[in-house]
Amino acid sequence: MKAVILAAGKSTRTYPLTANTPKPLLKVANKSILEHNLDQLQGIVDEAIVIVGFEKEQIISAFGRKYGKIKLTYVIQKEQLGTGHALMLAKDFVKDRFIVMGGDDLFSKEDIKRCVKHKYCVLAQKVPNPESFGVFVVHGKSVNKIVEKPSKFVSNLANTGLYVFDKSIFDFKLEKSPRGEYELTDYINKLIEKGEMIFCEEVKDYWLPIIYPWSLIEANEFLLKRIKVKKILGTVEKGVVIKGKVIIGKNTLVKSGVYIEGPAIIGANCTIGPNCYIRPGTSIGDHCKIGQAVEIKNSIVMDHTNVPHLSYVGDSVIGSNSNLGAGTKVANLRHDHGNVRSAVKGVLIDTGRRKLGMIIGDHVKTGINTLVYPGRKIWPNKTTLPGEIVKEDLE
Q1: 36, 85, 304, 309: the active-site residue
Q2: CA distances to 131, 137, 378 from 128, in Å
């Protein structure tokens, strides 16, 4: 069986993290979204057709032509004409039944396995805010129709973006939607019009949609809680305290005085400490340095990033190849204890999070004693001055 992974889009809602990086390469629990999904597909498919577009070279160079036992074939979507158009490009690479999945979200092998038992299938999850999703209207277990962001309640079964089709869907001719794109969900409508039964499976394990930058923090929290055992592959000096389920990668040195509370994960070739505090929910990538008197809590630190000394980072995402100057402090809680708001495409929105720190892109450098307000973002390659207070996003 084959899978088609849609990984061509340019995500603007996850800026600044995706300003120069495809969303499928963003890391959660020290694995990219695409790695995670390919892991879940192992043993189910023998080939994945990856539809690439935005910064395609990054994806191709990161994965090559094989991942585990899965052959990888890349198809380039030169124009962003919608998910339906992206799927059309896979027509000549599939033979019979195949899986389709978005490259932006994280799916579970357990749920994928249940879907592939059916000729046609969609994966859905009950949500409290169906007006924010496309939803499936079902009779029993059969899909009757799909409604995009309904203004009135018709169903709370959100479309997760995982489907099972067969090649016959390409016999249908799609028309552009009012927004000028070919919509993948029109294939579902065509199948329903033809009288085919489309089975609706509900998520039983997990679906982790990555919609906004802070979605990564939520997914990271979820996946770290699933760590089953402590695994120490690096060197730990005397005087280090490690509590709970913690993973430490090869060639990583943890210096004396470090206190780590799991669940947490630290990559390979890092230097941690001395005398720093790594709190639960933290993922630190490969080739990172976390130094003297640093505290990091419930955050993602991407590869090749340094937080050398005297800094606090909470509920934040820090891009790769960044460096925080001494004394950088991140505020992650409003004084009124209300939900943190953050700007997305110029509009200030409620993140739904009481605690949210900063989101910074790749190659960012902060000056010493930089202070950052809750929910603020710093775009790639930007810098701050010593003592600067970041009250607004730095683009």
Answers
A1: 309
A2: 9, 15, 31
Q: Could you say which DSSP state residue 154 is in?
A: S
pLDDT in tens, 305-359: 999 999 999 999 999 999 999 999 999 999 999 999 999 999 999 999 999 999 9
For the segment(s) 2-211, the CATH number from 3.40.50.1820, 3.90.550.10, 2.40.240.20, 3.90.190.20 is 3.90.550.10
Give SS3 for 191. Answer: helix
Does the annotation mark 309 as catalytic?
Answer: yes
Model confidence, pTM = 0.95
Kindly report, residue by residue over 266-314, the tens digit of the pLDDT. 999 999 999 999 999 999 999 999 999 999 999 999 999 999 999 999 9
CA 327 and chain centroid, separation? 29
Contacts of 4 (CB under 8 A, 6+ apart): 48, 49, 51, 87, 90, 93, 94, 98, 99, 100, 101
- Three-state secondary structure of 35-50: HHHHHHHECCECEEEE
